[in-house]
Amino acid sequence: MAEHDSKSDVVTTEAPELKIRRYTVGYIRDWKTHEPAPTITLKGYWLEDAGFATGTPLKIRVMPGCLVLTAQEPLPAPPPEPEIMQTLKKVCKLSGRKQQQILEFIEVISAKRPPAGKWG
């Protein structure tokens, strides 16, 4: 008789619940030719539950009779715009007269000046 009760370790993994959705290919009118073009519209909270939140980039693999949609990592956010560019955009919205004044001011402060203490 065995000294210890032996039980084989059973490892089970649960597969994610697969839900089948049924859709019908519809059509929309092509904006140039007004010819009908096939369209598929997917909508519902189940998309977010499946990892497809609003704004998620998609990769679509196309095969005969089969489309595979794969969620992609979002693109990194662009770096913040430098303060000088934000200021330049504000200047562009000013009147021509004010833009000219700013240009003259920049010319004055960027002009070469003689070194301090040397008055010529």
Automatic annotation (TrEMBL):
**What is one GO biological process annotated to this record?**
RNA metabolic process
Which domain of life does the protein's organism represent?
Bacteria
A GO cellular component annotation here is:
cytoplasm
Keyword tags? Cytoplasm, DNA-binding, Endonuclease, Hydrolase, Nuclease, RNA-binding
- Pfam families in the cross-refs: SymE_toxin
InterPro entries the record matches? Toxin_SymE-like, TypeI_TA_SymE
Localization of this protein: Cytoplasm
Q: Domain Toxin SymE-like, which positions? A: 21-71
Q: Which GO terms describe its molecular function?
A: DNA binding; hydrolase activity, acting on ester bonds; RNA binding; RNA endonuclease activity
**EC number(s) per entry:** 3.1.-.-
Q: Which family does it belong to?
A: Belongs to the SymE family.
Its function? Involved in the degradation and recycling of damaged RNA. It is itself a target for degradation by the ATP-dependent protease Lon.
Name under which the protein is recorded: Endoribonuclease SymE
Q: Which species?
A: Dryocola boscaweniae
This chain is encoded by the gene named: symE
